[in-house]
UniProtKB/TrEMBL annotation:
Alphabetic keyword roster: Electron transport, Heme, Iron, Metal-binding, Signal, Transport
Organism domain of life: Bacteria
Protein name, per record: Cytochrome c
Native organism taxonomy: Bacteria, Bacillati, Chloroflexota, Dehalococcoidia, Dehalococcoidales
A Pfam family hit: Cytochrome_CBB3
């Protein structure tokens, strides 16, 4: 009985001392920077850690779906202009970005932004035309769903705002290839047109 009490006393002391001892043995290195939203100027690049090769991060994490030259494949192409704000929200929640160290994510986001292209050719913004050209393959001509795409009639979009839809389209399959005016017009049309 005396041995059990002594054993319990030792365990109690260890439980009390364990947090203190572990605090003494932790590394004193600065924590890794987290992926942060950029300031209001969405073109401002995120802070980076020197020595990270973003092309290698892309090749190991993204190329299998988005193509070796960001041209697209299983996933959409990533050559068009995508905002830093969108990439900052998307990469940490994307399939391979969830486990990605924030330092690598920041370098990848900056690399994608710097290597994106802004289209200078005027693009049609008539939403019915944009929908027919880009969305009917998956969502059907009547928006009732089709080859893998769900129904996107206004009744199915009630909980989503126009702003959310416009942002969502930046990373959605064919939406990546649209310019912002097309995304905005399409989002408004999807919410309003039966």
């Amino acid at each position: 009985m005396k041995h059990k009490k002594a054993l319990y006393a030792v365990f109690a002391c260890l439980l009390v001392l364990l947090p203190v001892l572990s605090a003494c043995t932790q590394d004193t290195e600065e924590p890794a920077p987290t992926t942060t939203n950029p300031p209001n100027n969405e073109e401002a690049l995120l802070p980076e850690t020197p020595g990270i090769d973003a092309t290698l991060v892309y090749a190991s994490q993204c190329a299998s779906c988005h193509g070796t030259n960001r041209q697209g494949g299983v996933g959409p192409g990533l050559t068009k202009n995508i905002t830093i704000a969108y990439l900052s929200q998307w990469v940490p929640t994307h399939r391979t970005g969830v486990q990605l160290d924030p330092r690598l994510a920041n370098s990848l986001i900056n690399w994608l932004k710097v290597n994106s292209t802004v289209s200078t050719v005027p693009q049609p913004t008539e939403p019915a035309f944009v929908y027919a050209l880009n969305c009917t393959v998956c969502h059907g001509a009547t928006r009732s769903g089709g080859n893998g795409g769900p129904s996107i009639k206004p009744d199915n979009l009630t909980r989503l705002t126009e702003g959310f839809l416009a942002i969502f389209l930046q990373g959605h399959y064919k939406g990546v290839d649209l310019v912002q005016d097309q995304r905005d017009a399409l989002a408004e049309w999807l919410k309003a047109t039966p």
